[in-house]
Amino acid sequence: MGVTGAFQTARSTVVRVSRRVAPHAQRLVRFSLHRPFLAFFIYSGISLFLAIQYFHWCEHTGNGRWYYNWALTKTPASLVRFIPKGDWGEPTDPPRWVPEIYDSRWMGDWEVPPLSRPVWRREDEIWGSHAVSEGGAGASSHAVGSPSPEDQKGESESSGSQEESQGGTAPLASAADVKEPGDQGQGLTMAQMAEEQRLDDLGDLPKLLPNDKATSDDPPQAIRIRAPVPRTDSLPTAHPHTLSRRLKSPAIIKFHVFSTAVSEKSYAKRQLIRRLSPMYQIPPEYRHLVDIKFVMGYNYLDTWGPPLNETMESKIREEEREYGDILRLPGLWRGENLRDGKILQWIRDVGEGKDGRDAWYLFKVDDDAVINLPKLLDLLLSIDIHEPTYLGTSLNRWPSYHNHFTGMLTGFNYGLYKTLSQGISKMKEVDVQAAWDDDVLTGEIMYSLPPAPRCRHSPDLPECDPHRVPEYGWMPLPENPDPRTALNRYDFERRAGDPAWVGTKGDLGMHGWWFKFPEYWEKEWARVLKGLVWEPPAWLGKYADLDA
């Protein structure tokens, strides 16, 4: 019959069907015009019936709950609770109570570290979790990139009263604290250190002299004697992730991607993310304000404990030496997990400074999420950093659990993650490692946060009772801000979505099952992020790295 014959057959079929359908369509149009109110109710009923069936059919496929949760954010819970017909149910028991977190310092009482131009570590202070890798999972926690007790003591004594205002955390140095070049190499920029190493290899290390024109507001400058100015393209280009291990000045955001130490697929995904790193979307002079790391445990030969799988561990140690962007979590149950304490130990270790530096915001990111870092930074800089803030999207949460944000992109402001870290550090290890969904657990511990000043002064107020059952039960979103803790829940809603969800804006980030595969992750990156460069606000210019 050929292509022409097939086309003619299809065309005649369409014409025949159209002729049969046309009279019925005309009757519907005439009915709608003559009986508009009746037609409206009939069509609305049909639409509602189809929607209910869709919710019922999709509830276990990941789509139905998205629309249900979106309705919860827009409509009183009493109007939408009945829509799902399946076995979702609703949480009837109160959330898990963690007294150690309740007894911690309130989120708004922490002093937020100020931003600055980059402040570099001395060579003997360079952060790197490879020290723990060498010593195994049982190595001292001081090796996980944190200063030694002696260093912490020295910093504490030099900081005076500021140490006390930080609640026992050694404060970070400001740009003014950087010594002039020539003092043990302290205060050198990355370019200067690269040139220093090059000349050292040649056996002709030049003398460094201070620049008389430099002010206290400027990064330290250096005059090199007999040192030719190297061509930029002649210097080795380090990966931008390596900046972090040499920095001790605060960042705006810690962008921590959860990975694993037990899979070659995870290694391939880390390499893909490094190749297409969000850091490349940040202008070089502002990259010191972003910290990107991969979070993982250890790989044991036996599922239940040591010895280490040296084949995989040696590969990870090589990654650490090359990039310096891996945060290891020693002591995890079975070496590596996600739902047996990893999320809590991560918050605890980061809050204690074991990842090397402070930041205004801490984010947990799934490695199958594609995040628009420039837009996320713009959003974060529009929020008051001093207000306790929990960020994420509630649209993919499972409704039968207490309200929480899903793990594709979950964030905590400085005061919040410091409070959580302080509380988790006092928990029994068996409680930290209790098995529970990581996203759900993160949401539940928000109900155990310490009271704000108002409730500390008036604890008998009804809204100040931490065990009070909300008016509509545990199904709907909590009050925002929380009247007891003053916690702000910043819901990204449709700005963080999934390709399977119709109506998702997803301009902050997309997360999907297909993005577990590198080719689909890269395809989404090319669609949304390729060629994108952040344009920082003008006021941030005073913190720019002038030597970048």
Work out the strand percent: 5-15%
The amount of helix comes to: 25-40%
Radius of gyration based on Cα positions: 28 Å
Strand order of the largest sheet: 7-4-3-8-11-10-12
- Structural class from helices and strands? alpha/beta
Overall mean confidence score, pLDDT: 79
Region (Disordered): 132-186, 203-226
Family: Belongs to the glycosyltransferase 31 family.
Membrane topology: Single-pass type II membrane protein
Protein name: Hexosyltransferase
Write the SSE topology.
Layout: H1 2-34, H2 36-58, H3 64-74, H4 77-80, H5 99-102, H6 130-135, H7 149-159, H8 161-165, H9 190-202, E1 208-209, E2 223-224, E3 251-258, H10 264-275, E4 290-296, E5 300-302, E6 305-308, H11 310-323, E7 326-328, H12 342-351, E8 359-366, E9 369-371, H13 373-380, E10 389-392, E11 409-413, H14 414-424, H15 429-432, H16 438-444, H17 453-457, E12 488-491, E13 496-497, E14 509-511, H18 518-528
Helix pairs in contact: 1-2, 2-3, 12-14
What does this structure look like?
The chain is α/β, with parallel strands linked by helices and 548 residues long. The protein has a domain at 99-148 and 237-543. The protein has helices spanning 2-34, 36-58, 64-74, 77-80, 99-102, 130-135, 149-159, 161-165, 190-202, 264-275, 310-323, 342-351, 373-380, 414-424, 429-432, 438-444, 453-457, 518-528; strands at 208-209, 223-224, 251-258, 290-296, 300-302, 305-308, 326-328, 359-366, 369-371, 389-392, 409-413, 488-491, 496-497, 509-511. The strands form four sheets. A seven-stranded mixed sheet has the order 7-4-3-8-11-10-12. It has a three-stranded mixed sheet with strand order 9-14-13, with helices on one face. A hairpin with a 2-residue loop joins strand 5 (300-302) and strand 6 (305-308). The radius of gyration is 28 Å and the shape is globular. It comes from Dioszegia hungarica.
